[in-house]
Amino acid sequence: MKRLWPGWLLCLVTAGLFAYMALVESAAISALLSGWQLPDGVPLGYDADAARALFDAFSAEFARAQAEGRQSASEAYLALHAGVDLLFPPLLAMSIAFSAFAATYSRRDQTETPRLAKVGLGLALALAFAYLGFDFFENAVADTIYGPKAITLAFNAEMVFVLQVLTRGKYLSLVIVAVLIVALWIARRRRMRTTQTVI
Known about the structure:
This is DUF1461 domain-containing protein. Keywords: Membrane, Transmembrane, Transmembrane helix. The chain crosses the membrane at residues 86-104, 116-134, 171-187. It is built from 7 helices and no strands. It is 78% helix and 0% strand. It is elongated. The protein starts with a helix and ends with a helix. It has one domain (2-198). The chain is an all-alpha fold.
């Protein structure tokens, strides 16, 4: 476990960055929008009506911000995607890959790694990359609907379904890979108990 500390540190940094995004950055933007939750944080995504209502909230707040000479929620949302939320997805993907690898291979486990565990590792890595793609494309599409330039134009209803699919895909990939990693760790623990019993 001592050799794994860089990976655990990566997981800790990722968790801290997520907490900062959720409790500071996203919360501040939602407060400007009268409590509306950002699309990134809605697991099933917004339907057409809710997305339109959120667009109206962004538009009204944008007008107030322009009049007051401050940064708007739309601009803050774009800055979030260009800043902290640009770092978080690859960090989370690497944390997922590390957790799966650490659960599959162990220096203390002298038995050969089962083929099923290797398959599970491969699936976890594939899901990590899938999540990464979903998250990046989700941010890009969200910016085309709620970004500063988009707010001054007509509501882009055609992209709402695309955003909803990407958001659901992101959360689904995370749920599946979380279950898979838990299963890998349980299997690892059982292998180690079996090895100790034999010894």
